[in-house]
Prior knowledge:
The protein has helices spanning 3-12, 24-36, 40-45, 51-64, 71-83, 102-105, 108-115, 118-121, 130-138, 267-280, 301-314, 331-340, 406-418, and strands at 91-94, 147-151, 155-162, 167-175, 185-192, 196-202, 209-215, 217-218, 221-222, 227-228, 246-252, 255-260, 288-292, 319-324, 345-349, 365-367, 373-376, 398-399. It has 419 residues and is an alpha+beta fold. Helix 4 (51-64) packs antiparallel against helix 5 and helix 10 (267-280) packs parallel to helix 11.
Amino acid sequence: MNRIFYIFLISVLNPLSVFSQQNSCLTDLEALYEILKETPGYQDQIFQKNEKEYLGLLNLQKEQSKEATRDSQCFLLLSGLVAAIKDNHLSLSQIPDFEITADQLKDSAFMDAYRAREDFINFSSVRANFDSLERALAKVPEYDFQGIYYYKDYIKAGFFKIGEGNRYIGVVLESRLPNWKQGHIAFLGKEYDGGFWNIWNYDLLNKNLTLYSGERIVNHTFKRLPWSKFPTRIDYSLIPESSELFQLRSLSPTIQYLRLGTFASGNQAIEISQVFYDQIKDSLSAPNLIIDLRNNGGGGSKASLKYYQLIREKTKTAKIWLLFNQKTASNAEQIALELIKLDNVSTLGVNTIGIVAYGNNYGESKILPSGKFKIYITDMKDSGNYLQYESVGIKPDHFLMFDQDWLDQTIAIIESSEN
């Protein structure tokens, strides 16, 4: 994060809370560095390779921490250390001072008291002529990253560039939620070469910050966040949340469809996965098999390995058509990369999410000394040389269009390959 961007953010982020001690941010920076240098991402990318540059960044952040008297300001400095490591499993977040439940949002007396709190009144915000801002953003071309974005049907925000650089800010224009008001900052962004972003997003309920590094905007929607320019427009790349996670069905006499919607490795998830596997393992008989990994957020090899072995065996007698999208993540990406190495496998869709190189065996987070921030750490090494796909994702052999049914497009590609 360059100093110009930092100073800009200092100027717009109004107080969330004040650090109780002048050196709290410095202490947190030092503690975060000690945590990060033990991660596999640091060992692969920084240690004995780019350590001098990284320590220079650390020293710069320490110097700037003298100016950081607010939680939000310190969070931005901490995020610079995290974002410098290409590891999208790492997750830095702010611990909320005050938590709100969905039920409390409906309690008018509670929300009246909440809106009278100093942290609501002084929440990070901007002043503007919002009617003029909305009219201007409504005229922005679809392809421009700037414009009006929606968090489902809860919040409408204007996302626009600040100054001449690649800094953006998302400001609330309208909200159906009483814990937000016009002018509040909903998220911040910095664009990098290659279409990658660092996004600092405020939680919808508790309004604490989380860093999303290596983010991308796909079909006018952020990969990991619900912010979208066109939330009601049908996006055929995505599978409805109501769809069954595991499916096997015939699409034609020569094409079978197998959906593997999760590789979650909890005890109950493993049991469900195993029951499905036992039901279908002897039923893959068609010469073409579509494997649908869309929206599969990953999990672990306890769930995925048996399917990999089953599909690997199937490549000896059938053509495999591997379908993935911008929500295919982590262990699902790893399985896809291993399948791609086999004969008779073609891929279709769009680039995967690019959270693939590392991982966390135990789901461990560490709280920094101030008690105001926590880091979800990674402890799994890059065992498959996956770092080249981090943030970038896996590129498919056949790109599919967002405005047409993906199974219809896949079937057409299969049929054309047989002619």
